[in-house]
Amino acid sequence: RQIESHPPKRLLEVGAGSSTLLFAALAHKYGFEVVSLENHSGTVDYVDYLLKETPFAPHVCLQICGFKRFSYPDGKPYWWYAADLSGAPFDFVFVDGPMSSLVGRNGALPQVMPYLAAEARVFVDDVNREHEKEVIREGKRYFPEVLIDEECPGLGRVLVRK
Predict the structure, then answer these.
(1) Residue 71 CB: number of other CB atoms within 10 A?
(2) How far is CA 65 from CA 39, 83, 145, in A?
(3) Contact present, 31 and 115 (Cβ < 8 Å)
(4) Which of 27, 62, 65, 88 fits a disulfide with 81 by CB distance 3.0 to 4.6 angstroms?
């Protein structure tokens, strides 16, 4: 609904999977680019297989990435994808990875914020789970400009005032 009411120019999907196909189909329909980050090679192969016979594939840049250690300004460490986010700013971000059993989603806000367009829409999936609740609390602590709009159960919309 968010995409169809106001199509983005550039979408970042954090954690590839079946949703990548949906975003790719919408990108094909509305003419935007999808950048998708994933750490698991089996998932990348699966997504490539899903996209292979569709006209959607040219709209997706699928990056397989390892993880790199970063730090908040106070020195608290976190891990995040060693990804290339350069290019036009993202005006839509969907965070659905990495899994909390690996490194978690804590790095999403600090790593993505510099690459956001002024009116970016950022969504964090599964915010009813404990790890994701902590991601939201941590985001508010380090980024006072972050507000949470609980529009959909299980999906948190992060409002960033730039």
Answers:
(1) 10
(2) 5, 6, 28
(3) no
(4) 65
The string over 35-55, giving b where at least 16 C-beta atoms fall within 10 Å of a residue's C-beta and e elsewhere, is bbbbbbeebbebbeebbeeee
124: enclosing H helix or E strand: strand 116-125
Q: How far apart, in whole angstroms, are the C-alpha atoms of residue 93 and residue 88?
A: 13
Q: What is the pTM of this model?
A: 0.87
SS3 112: helix
Q: What is the per-residue burial (b if ≥16 Cβ within 10 Å, else e) of 143-153?
A: beebeeeeeee
- Would you state the structure tokens that stand for residue 95, as one six-digit string? 């965070």
Q: 99 falls in which pLDDT band (50, 70, 90)?
A: confident
Q: Mutual orientation of helices 18-30 and 41-52 as an angle, nearest 10°?
A: 40
Q: How many residues does the chain have?
A: 162
